[in-house]
Amino acid sequence: PSETQKLQDKVQLLKKEKNAVVLAHYYQEPAIKQVADFVGDSLELAKRAAQSQAEIIVFAGVHFMAETAKILNPQRKVLLPDLNAGCSLADSCEPKSFKKFIQQHPEHVVVTYINCSAEIKTMSDFVCTSSNAEKVINSIPMDKEIIFAPDKNLGDYLIQKTGREMLLWDGSCMVHEAFSIDKLLDLHKKYPSARIIAHPESERHILRAASYIGSTSGLIQHIAESDWNTFIVATEAGILYDMQKHFPDKTIIPAPAKENNSCACSECAYMKMNSLEKLYSCLKHETPEIILEQDIMKKAALPINRMLELSN
Ligand code: 13P
Ligand code: SF4
């Protein structure tokens, strides 16, 4: 067996010994997803974490996802292989400035995308993910004004979809803003029978070129249900592994990134901070662990649970 295989076997043994589960996001590297008990989008991962009976949850994703898992199931020990695995969207919404912003608009309902810190969640009325954001917005009475944070691109998309005016926070995902519309259209000319599909964190011009827009699981589901054979995918490149695995007969092409990007496709450097080695070590030593104050967990749980009630 290869070194990777040997390490994966050790992880599987430790999982049994310690009654642990590994929850992984699609953007994680294949070696991690292969040892995961569940691979999914943000909403599915949050639900799995909430229901987990395991003693330890190793969260192979980024910090806000592991925090959400801890908030929804505080009795479990939640581990994150690399505590520095952050998110540019979460970083763009600093609590002090956000507090000021919402204080300037006290009558507004505050909806935050799950890609934010636990502290931001404590200031929110509703949390949402890309797979239920429309539902959450539509559940708010028409006479209420809405603040949406931190993703201005998802916010702009939701304004168009729901017809609701919303005050947007000026945050964005550096990975989804790295796509080049010119290169994308050139690529589409090369593959005219391809469907462009995109994550709603992408900019408006990219979304306009897409024939389907959805969360990571939504994108996979769309390919499953579609009769088309070729897809150009505008989201983080890690998901291509899952698409190719589930649909080996389909042609899956990553949407091209702008010139100055480090790879020809788009990769999330934060997601890629986790590695199989770090995952093994964190499970073995039971650190780094997500620790949150009781008060923050209690307050942040309210808007997340409101979202979960709407998603059932
Ligand atoms: P999903 O909820 O669609 O998996 O999105 C998570 C994310 O971070 C996208 O960049
Ligand atoms: Fe955050 Fe973007 Fe990475 Fe998703 S892809 S975790 S939104 S930086």
From TrEMBL:
Amino acids binding [4Fe-4S] cluster: C87, C173, C268
Pathway(s) annotated for this protein in UniProt: Cofactor biosynthesis; NAD(+) biosynthesis; quinolinate from iminoaspartate: step 1/1
Enzyme Commission code(s) on record: 2.5.1.72
Localization per Swiss-Prot or TrEMBL: Cytoplasm
Molecular functions per Gene Ontology: transferase activity
Cofactor(s) demanded: [4Fe-4S] cluster
Bilayer-crossing regions: none
Residues annotated for iminosuccinate binding in this entry: H25, S42, Y113, I114, N115, S130, H199, P200, E201, T216
A matching Pfam family: NadA
Main location: cytoplasm
Gene3D superfamilies reported for this sequence: NadA-like
Function: Catalyzes the condensation of iminoaspartate with dihydroxyacetone phosphate to form quinolinate.
Alphabetical list of NCBIfam families matching this protein: nadA, PRK09375.1-2
Family: Belongs to the quinolinate synthase family. Type 2 subfamily.
The name this protein goes by in its record: Quinolinate synthase
Source species taxonomy: Bacteria, Pseudomonadati, Bacteroidota, Flavobacteriia, Flavobacteriales
